[in-house]
Amino acid sequence: MRTVHSLKELRTILRGYRQQGKTIGLVPTMGNLHEGHISLVRKASEAADIVVTSIFVNPMQFGAGEDLDTYPRTLADDQEKLEAAGNTLVFAPTVDEIYPEGLASQTQVVVPDVSDGHCGASRPGHFEGVATVVTMLFNMVQPDLAVFGEKDFQQLAVIRKMTRDLMMPVEVIGAPTVREDDGLAKSSRNGYLSDKERQIAPAVYQTLQATARKLSDGRADFEALEQEAEASLTQAGLRPDYFNIVNSLTLKPAKPDDNDITLLVAAFLGTTRLIDNLTVSR
Ligand SMILES: Nc1ncnc2c1ncn2[C@@H]1O[C@H](COP(=O)(O)OP(=O)(O)OP(=O)(O)O)[C@@H](O)[C@H]1O
Ligand SMILES: CC(C)(CO)[C@@H](O)C(=O)[O-]
Ligand code: BAL
């Protein structure tokens, strides 16, 4: 497995693979890899001959006061995990390589509608940063397919719409959320939690499951269910950012006759912001 830091090296190597007729799968990440990321690499390697994993903590998607500076950067560990998972190539560019002219004048990709609300409301500019860097990664790697986790449910919806609307020739594949034994969704940010916070964190998934059970029991008073869920997060010691019951495709408030409903949650434990979701088919 090779690691490259420059676009020039990346393009040279990928040209060689393409000349051999190999298909290319891309797994975009911000590094500090765990089993969630590795499941994406495995999925990409089942569907493509070559897997490129990018590791780039993208400043454009972080808001002021967020954790850009403290986000864990663990390239050597990440390389070991990727090698063991059968990854072909790591692309780990510097910020200057990706934004040589700085961020202020950077062309942006805006994906309307589906970026609104939920994390888009709490993190203004976040999905523009994600859509822009994913477009750039698609242009740099020119993959046949790219794999993203369902843990970041709204992000996946944004990327699917962007790819469709802009006719990008990339197949976007979603992969299920990998969880700890107690249900907590694996996330690099779990590493910020103190022991006490880590004990509280499974309440996020437990609240999703409890709400899903209420829906299965026939409840359709969604606003009341959202309030109950926020109250139970607060009771557990979290500070809910939002708990929204939405149509799985539009991400707009669910209606009682919707077939697929997704529960979206974001909540703070201390300064750590955790997100999770659960889809209920009816
Ligand atoms: N538990 C998980 N299961 C499946 N996919 C995941 C999981 N966690 C992250 N991913 C996916 O991995 C890709 C890279 O995500 P990222 O590097 O932000 O990881 P993360 O652990 O979610 O970090 P963060 O704590 O910053 O949200 C995204 O497509 C994301 O959805
Ligand atoms: C898709 C992504 C790698 C873009 O920076 C990031 O948002 C992430 O890790 O989910
Ligand atoms: N996992 C999404 C990337 C972010 O939180 O910035």
Structure overview:
The protein starts with a strand and ends with a strand. The longest helix has 16 residues, at 126-141. The chain has helices at 7-19, 35-47, 75-84, 95-98, 118-122, 126-141, 153-165, 195-200, 203-216, 222-236; strands spanning 2-4, 24-29, 50-55, 89-91, 145-149, 171-175, 239-247, 260-269, 272-281. It contains 10 helices and 9 strands. The mean pLDDT is 98. Strand 8 and strand 9 form a beta hairpin. By secondary structure, it is an alpha/beta fold. The strands form 2 sheets. It has a 6-stranded parallel β-sheet, with helices on both faces. Strands 7-8-9 form a 3-stranded antiparallel β-sheet. Helix 9 (203-216) runs antiparallel to helix 10 (222-236). It folds into 2 domains: 2-175, Rossmann fold, CATH 3.40.50.620; 188-281, Pantoate-beta-alanine ligase, C-terminal domain (Pantoate--beta-alanine Ligase, Chain: A,domain 2, 2-Layer Sandwich), CATH 3.30.1300. Bound molecules: adenosine-5'-triphosphate, pantoate and beta-alanine. Residues 28-30, 58, 61, 130, 133-134, 152, 155 line the site of pantoate. The active site is at residue 37. It catalyses: (R)-pantoate + beta-alanine + ATP = (R)-pantothenate + AMP + diphosphate + H(+).
